[in-house]
Amino acid sequence: MTTAKTAIIEAHGGPEQFRIVDQQIGEPGPGEIRIRHKAIGLNFIDVYQRAGLYPMTLPHALGMEAAGIIEAVGDGVTHLKVGDRAAYAATPPGAYTEARVMPATQVCPLPDAISFDEGAAMMLKGLTTQYLFRRTTPIAKGDTVLFHAAAGGVGLIACQWAKSEGITLIGTAGTDEKCQLALDHGATHCINYRTEDWVARVKELTGGKGVDVVMDAVGADTFEGSLDSLRPLGFMISFGNASGPVPPFSVGLLAQKGSLKITRPTLFTHIADHATCQKMARDLFEKVEVGTVKLRIDQRFPLADVAEAHRALEARKTTGSTILTL
Ligand code: NDP
Question: Are 228 and 249 in contact (CB under 8 A)?
């Protein structure tokens, strides 16, 4: 039995809830591995869990993404062995730690060409991008997608993914500098949605037609405008709540706005099946290995400063990915 420095919360609330404790870690049971982390990814879902929007039993360690080295393997695990480099986006939360025992299903071998920092910066955000573009609704070359918060962690990966597939991505972001970053990463257009009438601008950019698909994880502030940005029969993917949850609405609204379709997906449904998760990861790794998707890590915080990392993410001060270092 060894111990690992771990960031836990004992009550939902603000970033001041974090406490670093020495957590005991044992041996992996059947279907589990023990991994020693080299870097940990920060995600907006961690904020929802800390704040209580996504409630959990407490006390609990947070964090859903990391990269490191496999230290021990339980019975029945065949895709990983001791000494392997690995990375994951996975449930249950608990990645804010030096080392942990966890189910092996969603842990993936990390190719040598991808660093631990990149692995920690891309698994949750990159697999999300993979399912948004490949597994949610058919999106073909030449289609137009509206993507909110395009300079964020998922956003900059989505900009590059769209470009590599010949998809026109209209981004939105909260400052002109963030818009420039999205454009530099492959967005075809980017609208500052804090200063411009972005719905009108989307209509203008699409010749009055509207976009084929909206990918909206901003939530409350953008939901209705996103529906108004779609063409008739367009597809709305509401996948997050950075500005607060989408308020309840009448399904009749979808008829009024042009027979729209809507889904509210989560990555964890898509990666629940082991084989599917590994296949999705290989698709993502290929994009990174050939260089069509480059990971941009704009913020690094020591694990002990996780509260500062959360403050920066919530205050919209970050761009690209953020990692916690060990
Ligand atoms: P980001 O790095 O994109 O950070 C969130 C961004 O949202 C901010 O930088 C900000 O960009 C924008 N934003 C708009 N309004 C607010 C607000 N009121 N408060 C804070 N931020 C705001 O985070 P991630 O890359 O980690 O995640 C992006 C989104 O995708 C999140 O909503 C997340 O929950 C969602 N997600 C959903 C998944 C799923 O499967 N359902 C999986 C992964 C992520 P700006 O200043 O440009 O407006």
Answer: no
